[in-house]
Design brief:
heterodimer, A: mainly alpha, Arc Repressor Mutant, subunit A, Serine Threonine Protein Phosphatase 5, Tetratricopeptide repeat, B: about 260 residues, Rossmann fold, 10 helices, 5 strands, about 50% helix
Chain lengths: ~650, ~260
């Protein structure tokens, strides 16, 4: 070898090949036992005499001596608190050749390594359990007990090293080679444990993924184990808000075929969540629908319930309210059956939200009141705050403004205590809405403007939402140019699919009798959310503005199909009939609308519209009677 | 060869570090960039040696994996002694008011690491970032009390992405303003110098070592190899120490066994 070395080095195809020539020469020059130990020592990421003994049990008696010799070789480095390691570059070369040239031996050493780390973990666990049990028997006072346990831990670090997550990573790193199927299961289970860390950095899971990737990148691990690593990579990207990257990883995973229903169910569900975050609702729905039968096939109730609930959320966002309700009602008993309180509470709250959107306010209130103690019982502060805020929303819609304000003021410190900026921001916007209903417009504007800075720190969509709410106040103040200015600003900030902002601006254009601009916005909103009840309401109002009364009634009816208690749509039909000279039909429609009205202030716009009509067409019959009916109406407090 | 026996030539780099320690130059952040096998970890061990018994120092190697911000802070404070970190401890306590840590259920982490993890726990990224910044401020407030302190990080390329971002951002920005702090970061990848600290940062690329130093090394070890041969090997690897030393060791063993 030596004589030909320079020639071989110059003829080597690349740096790796060149480096292997000298590494191999050194390995071949080692005495037989030292050579065996050097190859075995390359398998783990670090080693000491105990690790080496486990990997080469027949050399146990000489292992200290062999370790001493090994530690003086140039490619061996010291590894803080754990002994030594083979230099990263040399290790990679040795492992690549070891795998190709003697795979059986590689697997056998990996098996021994897995066994060693498994035993180390178990030993630490046993030592700790025994000692803690002993201390618990001796010390009854909790503070002193914790202090004594800490002292014992500090003095026994070495014996407890099996608790270091790196030991578990190392164990699974070897297990995927020793037994790929068990290894794949271990990647799944360990990921479940580590994907939820206190500080949201996912350092342990990232380190775990990186370690197993070493095998994947060198072709030593394939199929299920590889897919589970990809899955957790996608989860980490998603948890770190890198949704586009997460989508790319999950889609890459989906390009493989596996019979692991659990993996496929979880991957589809998580990809669904990513699509949801990216407002790609049809894609999200498709993924949840794909995941659902897979969860059912493996009998994973929680996954099944979560998928059904997620499908409900998609329907909800698409304003498909009956379908959303059906999904929530389907998920609820599943959560109850498995005692999953948070899922149960979330479903009840979501059902309340559907009722709320359908203007079924007593039912909404009942659901929120049912969910609230559940959240409190499990200490879920955000759920508790959301429920209180939602109860405030019900009061707000009923124009019970002091009660609404009290609820919002109850929710606000809860959001602040847990640092929930989004909840805090929307509660302040709700307080602004209450102030605007009380005609305290300066206060309302001041409150809404105060949320913009907070929103900027959250996301552009929240900034847009703050401007949208500010525009709503100007709309109520009847300062339509200002309202249009802020709706436009909101749309410029968030160019995603926020159809409600576009519909809101269309509403202002309609009030200004600007049919051309209203129509442009309606067309644009329709492209994003074609089946929204408020879209049909605006389409009906536009048709009325253009004098197309029959067409208008068709649109209003479509809105009522979705929200049967949609008072605004009934008033729209009333206006179509009135202007078409059908006075009796008009009166019936207004009466129907009133039967679904919750508060006097809901009638403000309708009365104003009728008064404008009266001043334009003083001879039109029926207007005065209907105005009288609306102005004297009082809500049924039952 | 050098004023240190049994090592290859890195005098220039060591001299630079000594100047940093003595304040002979204004640079206080040293970034060492080198490919694998170039001898950077060896050089860092010499830096640590240089600090030994003279200057407060902490060396951390990211090759062990899984070092999160709480783990890094806890190791750093463990190494120097928590009694020197009053501001940091107080802030952690403040963030953790109302929470309790059950040690018996969290043996693996250690009380201090759990406390830092809990202190950095918040439901949204903005609050977490604020808490990370506050904790970094408190850390440097405490570190300023030392006449001089050296923080050495090795294998930065294996650093967790969140930790890497924190080191490149909040951490080095504070280090830049703490005039008693010297930071050395080495790896195949190093942080991109930022606007606020690039003025006091020196980037060092470790190059290959000249053949004559390997010839001297072989001679000192009693390895009989013709200098021509060493030059040939050195050329083949552009002076990168690891493969050259591997080959010299192979010659050493072959000679002993022949």
């Amino acid at each position: 070898m030596s004589d030909d070395l320079l020639k071989n080095l110059s003829e080597a195809a690349n740096d790796d090949e060149r480096e292997w020539l000298v590494t191999k020469d050194l390995l071949d020059s080692l005495p037989e036992n030292l050579q065996r130990v050097a190859y075995a020592a390359s398998i783990p990421h670090w080693f000491d005499s105990k690790v080496l003994s486990a990997l080469c049990p027949d050399l146990t008696e000489q292992i200290e001596n062999l370790l001493e010799q090994l530690s003086h070789l140039p490619f061996v480095e010291s590894f803080k608190d754990r002994g030594f390691n083979i230099h990263e570059k040399t290790r990679k070369l040795i492992l690549d050749h070891f795998w190709v040239e003697d795979q059986d031996k590689y697997i056998a050493v990996s098996k021994a390594a897995e066994n060693y780390f498994d035993n180390a973990i178990k030993a630490s666990s046993e030592i700790a359990n025994n000692q803690i049990k002993k201390l618990k028997d001796e010390i009854k006072e909790e503070d002193i007990l914790q202090q004594k346990i800490q002292e014992w831990i500090d003095n026994n670090r070495k014996a407890l090293q099996g608790f270091d997550p790196q030991y578990q990573i190392e164990r699974i790193y070897h297990l995927v080679i020793a037994d790929p199927e068990q290894g794949a299961d271990a990647i799944w289970q360990q990921g479940v444990e580590w994907h939820d860390e206190f500080d949201y950095t996912y350092a342990t899971l990232t380190s775990f993924i990186k370690a197993i990737h070493e095998h994947i990148d060198n072709g030593r691990v394939k199929d299920r184990a590889k897919y589970w690593v990809l899955y957790w990579e996608g989860v980490v990207a998603s948890k770190q808000y890198q949704y586009l990257n997460a989508k790319k990883i999950f889609n890459h995973l989906m390009s493989f075929v596996s019979k692991d229903n659990r993996l496929w169910a979880m991957a589809n569900e998580d990809l669904g969540d990513v699509h949801n975050q990216l407002s790609e609702l049809p894609e999200a729905r498709a993924r949840y629908e794909e995941a659902l039968p897979l969860y059912r096939a493996i009998g994973e109730k929680i996954g099944e319930a979560n998928c059904i609930k997620a499908l409900g959320d998609v329907h909800n966002q698409l304003s498909e309210l009956p379908e959303a309700r059906a999904r929530y009602e389907e998920a609820l008993p599943l959560y109850r059956a498995i005692g999953e309180k948070i899922g149960e509470a979330n479903c009840i709250k979501a059902l309340g939200d559907v009722h709320n959107q359908l203007s079924e306010l007593p039912e909404a209130r009942a659901r929120y009141e049912e969910a609230l103690p559940l959240y409190r019982a499990i200490g879920e502060k955000i759920g508790e705050a959301n429920c209180i805020k939602a109860l405030g929303d019900v009061h707000n819609q009923l124009s019970e403004l002091p009660e609404a304000r009290a609820r919002y003021e109850e929710a606000l410190p809860l959001y602040r205590a847990i640092g929930e900026k989004i909840g805090e921001m929307y509660t302040i916007l709700n307080l602004a809405d209450v102030a605007s209903k009380e005609k305290k417009f300066d206060l309302a504007i001041q409150l809404a403007e105060s949320t913009i800075e907070t929103a900027k720190k959250i996301s552009p969509s929240n900034v847009a939402s703050a401007f949208n709410n500010l525009a709503n106040i100007y709309e109520k103040k009847k300062d339509y140019p200002k309202a249009i200015e802020f709706y436009t600003k909101a749309m410029e900030i968030f160019t995603g699919s926020q159809a409600y902002m576009i519909r809101n601006r269309a509403n202002v254009y309609l009030k200004m009798a600007d049919a051309e601009n209203a129509e442009k916005d309606i067309v644009r909103a329709e492209q994003i959310q074609p089946n929204n009840p408020f879209l049909f309401l605006r389409k009906g109002e536009l048709a009325n503005l253009k004098g197309n009364f029959e067409e208008a009634i068709i649109f209003f009816m479509k809105a009522i199909d979705i929200i049967p208690r949609f008072s605004g749509a009934f008033f729209g039909i009333g206006m179509s009939n009135l202007r078409a000279g059908k006075i009796q039909e008009a009166k019936i429609s207004y009466q129907q609308g009133l039967s679904f009205t919750d508060a006097v202030d809901e009638l403000e716009d309708t009365i104003e519209e009728l008064e404008k009509l009266k001043s334009r067409q003083p001879s039109l019959l029926g207007v005065d009677d209907i105005l009288e009916m609306l102005k004297t109406w009082k809500p049924d407090k039952k | 060869m050098s004023h240190h026996s049994n090592r290859l030539d890195r005098d220039e780099e060591l001299e630079f570090f000594e100047k940093m320690l003595s304040g002979g130059i204004s640079d206080r952040i040293l970034l060492i960039h080198a490919d694998g096998g170039m001898g950077k970890s060896h050089l860092l061990r010499e830096f640590v040696q240089e600090c030994q018994n003279k200057i407060i120092h902490v060396a951390m190697d990211f090759k062990s994996g899984g070092i999160s911000i709480p783990e890094l802070l806890s190791r750093l404070c463990d190494a120097i002694g928590w009694e020197h970190f009053d501001n940091l401890s107080t802030l952690i306590q403040q963030f953790n008011t109302g929470t309790t840590i059950n040690i018996s259920e969290n043996i693996l982490l250690g009380q201090n690491k759990i406390a830092i993890e809990q202190a950095l726990n918040a439901p949204d990224e903005e609050t977490r970032e604020k808490q990370r910044v506050a904790i970094t401020d408190a850390l440097f407030h405490d570190l300023r009390a030392f006449p001089k302190a050296v923080l050495i990080f090795d294998t930065f390329n294996d650093c967790d992405p969140v930790v890497a971002k924190w080191i490149s951002g909040a951490f080095l920005t504070r280090a830049c303003h703490a005039k008693n702090i010297i930071v050395v970061i080495a790896g195949r990848i190093i942080p991109e110098p930022a606007l606020d600290w690039h003025g006091i940062c020196h980037e060092l690329v470790l190059h290959g070592i000249e053949s004559k130093h390997f010839e001297e090394y072989a001679k000192s070890k009693g390895i009989k190899v013709h200098p021509e041969r060493i030059r040939g090997i050195c050329d083949a690897f552009n002076g990168r120490p690891l493969p050259i030393l591997n080959q010299l060791e192979a010659y050493n063993l072959q000679e002993r066994h022949s």
